[in-house]
Specification:
The chain is of the alpha+beta class. The protein has a 6-stranded antiparallel sheet with strand order 1-14-15-19-18-17, with no helix packed on it. The chain has a 5-stranded antiparallel sheet with strand order 3-2-12-11-10, with helices on both faces. α5 runs antiparallel to α7. The chain is rod-shaped, with a radius of gyration of 50 Å.
Length: 455
Amino acid sequence: MTTPGQPVDGLSDFAELMAHEQEFGGDGIDPAVRRRRRRRGLIITAVCIVLLLAVTGGYIGWALTAPVNPPAVTTRTPEVPVGTAVALAAPPVAASAISIAGADAYLGETASATWSVTGTGEPFPIASITKLITALVILDASPLASADDPGPTITFGKADHDLYDVYYVQGATIAPMPTGTSMSLHDALAAMLIPSASNYAEALSRQIFGSQGAFLGATRAWLASHGLTGTTITEPTGISPSNTSTPADLLAIAKLAAANPAIAQIVATPSISIPGAGQLYNTNGLLGTAGITGLKTGNLGEGTHSLLYTATFDVGAGAPLSVTGVVLGGASRESVNLTVVGALESIRSGFHQVPVATAGQEVGSISTPWGSTATLVIAETASILTWSDTPIELTMDIETPPTYRDGTVVGSVTWTAGPNTVTAPVKIMGSIDPPTEWWRLTHPSELGSLMDAWG
């Protein structure tokens, strides 16, 4: 028990504790230490805030300026059209053949020689087509310098005049030839070829060669020199069915005749007036039809109507086409004419413009991760010239454009058919808008590398 005035131990300890707390605080930490800790905490907090702000600002700056992945371009190859196939109808004749010059690139390398053939290729009676051979043989012996060169003067005597009656009773085509008639070689050939006058064919061949035997000898030599082994000529008019030739030989003969200026001019003449012979009309009623320019008809009666012809027309393939053809053994002149015109119209229509594209036709699309889209379209309407159903090939070339704005040309589409090529540009329809700032900030994975941006 304590005495009065003596401090109690417990109270003394408590007083000392309270004094210590007042000096060092309730946690017992030295205020100097506490102040150092507080200052260090503030510094750390400030550094963290600065770093956070730096990182955040860097990210924002990077996100707003970093490159984005380019738009995705998807292409769709347009459907390639097919031209309408052309098929020549089988002609209702014994034999036929056609060659076409100027279209080898479309029809094949052999088209200029022989493009279409029907029949067996055997020799067939050629009737008055013979007179074309007679004219070629005569001009080989007595050439004319040009289409307008009259050549030597021919005077026909009584023996020549008598041929009129000889051929009349045979039902052959004839033209007036009064005794003593004089005309130029050019006009005499016209009288033979235009109305197909048989009396002029025999009279003129005898005048030039002196006799029919000499003429036939010259004809055989001429045929041999041109390799026309499928042709036989026994007289100058064609009235004999023993005058025969093959379609292949006749195509060659037609080209020789068309290449002779005098003959080409004569056979293209619808009618002519010759003193002594009168007004004469061409037996080829197709002149000027379907581009036909010649050459010679032939007829020995029903089932033997024939035509050796040339035609020229433009199909847009560059130079005009030159067609040479023959039909042998038609039922009538009308059926032969229909066959020839039908064949030429089929050839002409077989060359056609095939539409391959229309302006605005979609061939692809453009899309971005941020949802902006546009389409790729063909900028122009296009078509290509083809023959029949010649395959059309397509190639498309799309390049990365500098900008993805409406109207920007990004490539082309090219179509090829035979020798022809046509190209149309491909452009953007619509514009690709840039990504918004918010999209950039919220889609970092779609942007360029952050490390790359920071170096």
